[in-house]
């Protein structure tokens, strides 16, 4: 998108005042005009939440992003882009809601302590990027049963 503000126009440079978008703006000054060049960056619409899960159970993170052109979502564990892809217990599902919005689920099956850490929802539309972290922590079933037992006595 390009907005040209010339010397004879009364166009105010109000961009993205109440819109749900990220804008990266660059200004180009010429002899007779000012040009604002903006590119749209992804917006993460739904943040995934920190979770504490009993060992052996499943954890699910969800994330939604919107931008034009359509963004992709990649999940990253502890700053390691391959950790999610290489773990057979982790399943990614992307649902395309329309031509600008994507919803993604990350399901971690049979959670183990080594899966603890930071999980990023990383959105990219080949122009701009956005990411949001959430943390996964596990507790052993023994801890859960001990707390349950103590709460009844």
TrEMBL record:
In which domain of life is the source organism classified? Eukaryota
Q: Which Pfam families match?
A: Ig_3
Ig-like domain residues are 42-137
For this protein, the record's InterPro entries field holds:
Ig-like_dom, Ig-like_dom_sf, Ig-like_fold, Ig_sub
- PROSITE patterns in the cross-refs: IG_LIKE (PS50835)
Q: What is this protein called?
A: Ig-like domain-containing protein
